[in-house]
Design goal:
The protein is α/β, with parallel strands linked by helices and about 450 residues long. Helices cover about 45% and strands about 15% of the residues. It contains 15 helices and twelve strands. A hairpin with a 6-residue loop joins strand 3 (about 50-55) and strand 4 (about 60-70). Helix 6 runs antiparallel to helix 14 (about 410-430). Bound molecules: guanosine-5'-diphosphate and magnesium ion (MG).
Length: about 450
């Protein structure tokens, strides 16, 4: 997977038909290979769109009219010679172009191989490479914005700034080691401890946005629960913005899980409507109830719906008891009909699915429940679990060094072990030092052609 001496080819546009489709070639022979498929020999001028045609293998007939662009190394996406051939967006034609390139000696690209090459050639660090996949997969504008920020290098710069300070501290401690006879310490351990505290604060600030960031990057599951006929499906529909779930006044209408992805303040939420809780002999309904219970167990947040226009029933109480330990929002529905239930818990809200009253506030409450009160204070939230774990581990090493340094009189060697360890974690985040398995795992997630 990590060979870069051959030339790879793949369709870069999504499967299916479209106005345009792009085949991309990258590698030392990209220009030569392109020349063998295109009408007019090797006349592609760097970074100029050339209108030409693709010839069949025998070069007898043209198969498509295309625009070809040559990006010479190193000023290309991958850092290698790249040729992009834009033709009509027909899978048949695009596959034919790929076949021609393969016949001429190219190799079919692995998933993410173009971006991997960009990484190996130093065009992007690992954070930015991961951001490429995040940006493509973004389902909400906020996900896209965060991914683009990371692609743009904002997080990279923050890590680089941390690394520079850590490097400086290490250098001064090492200098003290290297010139022991002078009895001169380039940094005394108390000052070193103070600097470590500053570094830890900076990391904590970055990690502050981690819960919200991860929620936004990975999305969340919100399950709607409650007894039958309280308006679960109605609330599901208004949150989903469409009449996805069937609503009737007949208890037990919803029997299977109904899901829909909705954007709740930037978080891509998989919203799940469930069968209402009640004891039932109906086989289908009881399976529905069991599925609802299982869904609740994996939910990030449970929305418990109660019909506020009727007195609380034993079934309502049962759902409240069952979700007591879950992160939950209690919705008192049917506010248009007046209210006769008392306050259930602090995290409750009164709405009407019918009139839409209180639903904006419910969305905000859901976002709070998902992201905690931290929300998005930081413009560059750290959102990727891998980065979060490595930063936490970096912090732990710094903390261990800081504690030792604060005791005073500790040999520099001991502090250096922890500090070097902390620095390694930063190297892993940006990919200066990352093992092949991790790289493989990261790039496998990409689509072919990216
Ligand atoms: N007046 C009023 N009726 C509602 C409201 N929400 C739902 N309903 C009605 O309550 C009944 C049950 O709603 P549904 O969404 O199917 O409840 P579910 O069984 O919990 O999914 C339907 O007749 C709805 O039209 C509301 O806010 N106000
Ligand atoms: Mg329902």
């Amino acid at each position: 997977m990590f060979a870069t001496d051959d030339t790879i080819v793949a369709i870069a546009t999504p499967p299916g038909r479209g106005a345009l489709g792009v085949v991309r070639l990258s590698g030392p022979r990209a220009l030569d290979l392109a020349a063998t498929l295109l009408d007019r020999g090797p006349v592609l001028q760097p970074r100029q769109a050339t209108h030409t045609r693709v010839r069949s293998e025998q070069r007898t007939a043209a198969i498509d009219e295309v625009v070809a662009t040559f990006f010479p190394a190193p000023h290309s996406y991958t850092g290698e010679h790249v040729v992009e051939i834009t033709g009509h967006g027909s899978p048949v034609l695009l596959r034919a172009v790929v076949q021609l390139a393969l016949a001429a000696g190219a190799r079919l690209a692995e998933p993410g191989e173009f971006t991997l090459r960009a990484f190996l050639n130093g065009k992007r660090d690992l954070i930015q490479s991961e951001a490429v996949a995040d940006l493509i997969e973004a389902a909400t504008p906020l996900q896209a914005r965060i991914a683009f920020d990371q692609l743009d290098g904002t997080l990279t710069q923050r890590i680089a700034a941390l690394d520079a300070r850590l490097f400086d501290l290490i250098a001064r401690l090492e200098a003290s080691l290297d010139f022991p006879d002078e009895g001169y310490h380039f940094v005394d351990t108390i000052d070193a401890a103070a600097e470590m505290s500053h570094l830890i604060e900076t990391i904590d600030h970055l990690l502050d946005g981690a819960v919200a960031g991860r929620m936004i990057r990975e999305g969340a599951t919100v399950v709607i629960a409650g007894r039958t006929n309280v308006g679960k499906s109605s609330i599901f529909n208004v949150l989903a913005g469409s009449a996805r779930a069937i609503v009737t006044s007949i208890p037990g209408t919803t029997r299977d899980l109904v899901t829909e992805t909705v954007d709740i303040e930037g978080v891509a939420v998989t919203l799940v409507d469930t069968a209402g809780w009640r004891d039932t002999r109906d086989v289908v309904e009881s399976e529905g109830v069991a599925r609802g219970t299982r869904a609740r167990a994996v939910a990030d947040v449970v929305v418990v719906v109660i019909d506020g226009s009727e007195p609380m029933s034993a079934d309502d109480q049962r759902v409240l008891d069952q979700t007591f330990d879950s992160r939950r929002v209690v919705v008192i529905n049917k506010r248009d009909r007046g209210r006769c239930v008392e306050t259930v818990c602090a995290n409750e809200i009164c709405v009407s699915a019918l009139t839409g009253d209180g639903l904006d506030a419910l969305r905000t409450m859901l976002a709070d429940a998902l992201m905690g009160d931290e929300r998005l204070r930081d413009e560059v939230p750290i959102s990727n679990t891998r980065h979060i774990a490595l930063l936490q581990s970096c912090r732990a090493s710094l903390e261990s060094a800081r504690r030792a340094a604060a005791d005073g009189n500790v040999p520099e060697e001991l502090l250096l072990v922890d500090l070097q360890e902390a620095r390694l974690r930063l190297d892993e985040i940006v990919g200066r030092r990352t093992n092949e398995d991790v790289l493989r795992h990261i790039f496998e997630r990409f689509c072919i052609g990216k």
